[in-house]
Every structure is written in structure tokens, then in C-alpha cells.
């Protein structure tokens, strides 16, 4: 972008449009527009990679699936609430019903979170690692990443169309011997064309992910011939008070996070404030104090620990789980201690 801005502003706008063709206002307007977008794009990247970041999943204690065992009964009642979290109605698990555990963070790894070796902690709604921006894309900076793609595409279009608009006259003058054809203009024309195709394809891919409530990582897994890991959920059936471990196929898992409408999916991906979808400022996640609430006999819920980082299945996925249970299509049946501890 630094090279492109210099070549565009100096070699095209100043040398050709301003001095040679005498379109002073056009040249100044194009230079101001491109430089303003440069500053805006750099500001978005600074937030995305440095200030906001992808987000950090708070420490989540194990779910209270089994009662805490101690020789002193009173110690059980005192220690158990402080060492565990009430299991949610549905959570991702292994074939035995145990929630996913991150051995590096020594914490539960909630739905759609993945551990980043680069950052050293679990990132909520891990999307991908962008090598071009040098940052992990997660729940917090995803909206900024999409906005970066939009404004970068705008920058490229302005540079490309400006060159195309004057290229015919430049080539005509060159053939007539009136002026020389600068190689920098050819270079940035080729670079902007290729980069625009790349950025636009990336934006359209992210737009599809937003509409269907998917992450880039989930899309990559979906395209593989087989799952790298099996996908299972432990669901609490209120009809009989038991939990059932249900396995999803690759196609079922790819659509399990999608809500009832594309609008709901967009809100989950870009944040509840629609105005901020168009303003590249700050995180897409509302401010939240990551602190478990413990008051008397009340138990700690997962929502009070991770707040807006909570990811839930769509209604169609829940109905699919219930249908599998009714058809005895499940792996394990169990009773969780914490299901009877809610106040």
C-alpha cells in the first residue's frame, strides 16, 4: 500500500493528471481520498491486531457433572460450588459426555473456542490466523477484519479505476511521442488487479460465513473428506432429567450454529449495534466483567463466567438432537450432578 500510494499519487496524479493534463482538482481529490483511506485502513489494522485483538476466553472451571468427593460432608457443600460451574443445557463433549478441556490453559474450552499457540490462550469463536495482517481473528476483532476487507477493496478500486480512466490517453500520448509511459503505473495496475480479486473473494467468503454463522476454520473442516475430530454434544433432556451424548455428521455440524434467520446470524458475528457495522471502531463484543457470581446458595452459571462469549446451537440443531434421542440414536446416557443444583 505504501508503494501503491506513492506511485499513484506521484506518478499518476501529480505527474500526469495535475501537471500534464491540468486537471488540478481531480488530482488533488484523488490524492486526498487515497491518503485518507490509507490512514483509515492503518487505524483499523492497529485496532484489529494490537488494541482490540481476537479476545481471550476466561478461565472456566469444570462442569459439576459429578459431586465433589470428600470425607467431610460439610466440606463437599463448601468446596463444590467454588470448584465447578453448572453445566449448560447443551455443550460440546467427548463420547463419554466430558466437556472439552484445554491442557495448556487448564480450563474448559467452550464451544467454537480454540487454543492459540501463538498467543498462549484460548480464543473465543476462533476464525483463522491471517498471515497478511499478522493477527489471529476471533470474536472480538472479527467485525474489524470484515471492515478492513471492505475499505481495502475500496482503496484498490479507486486506484485501479483511476489508472484505467487515464490509461488510454497516457498510451496514446506515449505512442505519439508526447510523454513517456512510466513503469510504476503498469506495476500498480497489475498489483491492484490481482489484490482486488483476492480481497474481494475473501470478503465474499466472509459474507457467506456471516449469513450462515460459520467460521473460516469450520468451512475448512467442512471441505475435508473426513473430520479431524468427532463432533458430539451433551444435551439435557428435561423430559426424563437425563443427559444424552449425540454425535453430528459433518454436514449436520456445519449448520448447527445457524440461527433462524440471516439477520440473527449477522448480529452474532458483527455485534448487536448495527450502527457499528459501518463504523470501524472498537470491539464487536459488548463490555462484560468476567467474574463468576457466588451469592449464598446460588450456583455459578456458565453465562456469568463467559458472558457474550457464549455460543449456542440453533433451534434446528436442538430439534435434531431431540429427534436423535427419541430414535435412540445417541452414544451415552448419564445424569449430571449439577442439573439438580440450580436455584
Report on the structure:
The protein is of the alpha+beta class and 343 residues long. Helix content is 47%, strand content 11%. The chain contains ten helices and ten strands. The strands form four sheets. The chain has a four-stranded antiparallel sheet. It has a two-stranded antiparallel ribbon with strand order 2-3. A two-stranded antiparallel sheet has the order 4-5. Helix 1 packs antiparallel against helix 2 and helix 4 packs antiparallel against helix 5. The radius of gyration is 27 Å and the shape is elongated. The termini are far apart.
In short:
This protein is α+β, with helices and mostly antiparallel strands and 343 residues long.
Structure keywords:
single chain; 343 residues; alpha+beta; four-stranded antiparallel β-sheet; two-stranded antiparallel ribbon; 10 helices; 10 strands
Amino acid at each position: 500500500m505504501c508503494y501503491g500510494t506513492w506511485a499513484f499519487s506521484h506518478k499518476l496524479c501529480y505527474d500526469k493528471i495535475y501537471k500534464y493534463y491540468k486537471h488540478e482538482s481531480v488530482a488533488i481529490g484523488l490524492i486526498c481520498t487515497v491518503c485518507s483511506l490509507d490512514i483509515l485502513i492503518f487505524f483499523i489494522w492497529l485496532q484489529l491486531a494490537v488494541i482490540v485483538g481476537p479476545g481471550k476466553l476466561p478461565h472456566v472451571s469444570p462442569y459439576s457433572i459429578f459431586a465433589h468427593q470428600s470425607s467431610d460432608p460439610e466440606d463437599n457443600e463448601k468446596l463444590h460450588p467454588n470448584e465447578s460451574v453448572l453445566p449448560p443445557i447443551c455443550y460440546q463433549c467427548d463420547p463419554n459426555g466430558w466437556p472439552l478441556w484445554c491442557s495448556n490453559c487448564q480450563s474448559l474450552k467452550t464451544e467454537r473456542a480454540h487454543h492459540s499457540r501463538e498467543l498462549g490462550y484460548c480464543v473465543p469463536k476462533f476464525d483463522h490466523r491471517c498471515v497478511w495482517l499478522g493477527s489471529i481473528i476471533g470474536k472480538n476483532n472479527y467485525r474489524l477484519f470484515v471492515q478492513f476487507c471492505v475499505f481495502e477493496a475500496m482503496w484498490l478500486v479507486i486506484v485501479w479505476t483511476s489508472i484505467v480512466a487515464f490509461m488510454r490517453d497516457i498510451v496514446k500520448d506515449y505512442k505519439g511521442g508526447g510523454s513517456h509511459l512510466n513503469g510504476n503505473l503498469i506495476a500498480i495496475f497489475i498489483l491492484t488487479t490481482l489484490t482486488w480479486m483476492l480481497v474481494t473473494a475473501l470478503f465474499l467468503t466472509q459474507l457467506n460465513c456471516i449469513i450462515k454463522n460459520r467460521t473460516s476454520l469450520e468451512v475448512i473442516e467442512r471441505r475435508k473428506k473426513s473430520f479431524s475430530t468427532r463432533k458430539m454434544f451433551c444435551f439435557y433432556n428435561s423430559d426424563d432429567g437425563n443427559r444424552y451424548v449425540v454425535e453430528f455428521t459433518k454436514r449436520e455440524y456445519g449448520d448447527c450454529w445457524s440461527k433462524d434467520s440471516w439477520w440473527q446470524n449477522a448480529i452474532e458475528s458483527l455485534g448487536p449495534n448495527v450502527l457499528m457495522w459501518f463504523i470501524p471502531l472498537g470491539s464487536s463484543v459488548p463490555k462484560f466483567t468476567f467474574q463468576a457470581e457466588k451469592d449464598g446458595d446460588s450456583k455459578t452459571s456458565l453465562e456469568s463466567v463467559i458472558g457474550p462469549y457464549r455460543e449456542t446451537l440453533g433451534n434446528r440443531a436442538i430439534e435434531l438432537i431431540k429427534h436423535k434421542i427419541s430414535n435412540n440414536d445417541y452414544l451415552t446416557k448419564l445424569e449430571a450432578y449439577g442439573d439438580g443444583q440450580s436455584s
